[in-house]
Specification:
CATH topology of the largest domain: Four Helix Bundle (Hemerythrin (Met), subunit A)
Largest sheet: 2 strands, antiparallel
Shape: globular
Number of domains: 2
CATH architecture of the largest domain: Up-down Bundle
CATH class of the largest domain: Mainly Alpha
Low-confidence stretches: none
Distance between the termini: 63 Å
Strand content: 5-15%
Order of helices and strands: EEHHHHHH
């Protein structure tokens, strides 16, 4: 058997097997990946209050996050209504992008509260990634938002949402000695 197969006797039967290096490597890689996932490879989250400009009030940030969801949902509903049914002009692509980022805000705002509630020992550190995603979408929304495209009630909801997001942002603001490390 010179074709890459080997054979051996197991009891009275001849057992042959074929060695396929790729198959073994692929299975080994899968086993190692499963072991790493089953082992719970997590990064230790350490909060250092001196790295931030303001003390973190987990209950208030979670409440603000839930409130941001509600306000963003209503603002998104009324903004879409304003652009589709009420607009006396043809909406631009920027108006559509603003509504898109409003939707992303109301989808991602509850994540901050969920992370805070899920990890009460390290609320700021645990919710940092969710907050960064929310902050990016809020920044993009502000870039595309034009108050002239919407009616008064929608604009007041958007101003309330921006106020809430700014208040949440104040809890994640780094201290003056530590600049923000994100690119946006």
């Amino acid at each position: 058997m010179s074709n890459g197969s080997s054979a051996f006797f197991a009891g009275r039967k001849l057992v042959s097997y074929s060695i396929n290096l790729r198959f073994v490597c692929r299975n080994l890689r899968s086993v190692l990946m499963a072991a790493a996932l089953a082992g719970g490879c997590t990064t230790v989250c350490q909060e250092r209050p001196e790295d931030y400009a303001r003390a973190f009030d987990a209950e208030k940030v979670a409440r603000l996050s839930h409130e941001a969801y509600q306000v963003a949902w209503h603002a998104n509903f009324w903004a879409r209504r304003d652009l589709v049914w009420v607009a006396s002009f043809r909406p631009t692509q920027d108006d559509g992008e603003a509504v898109y980022f409003l939707r992303r805000i109301y989808q991602q705002a509850p994540w901050v509260a969920q992370d805070i509630e899920k990890h009460p020992a390290t609320p700021r550190c645990s919710s940092q990634h969710s907050y960064d995603s929310l902050r990016f979408n809020a920044k993009m929304f502000r870039q595309y938002y034009r108050p002239a495209s919407y009616h008064g009630p929608t604009n007041s909801m958007v101003q309330n949402l921006i106020r809430i997001l700014d208040e949440i942002d104040s809890y994640y603001e780094p201290s003056p000695s530590k600049p923000r490390t994100t690119w946006y």
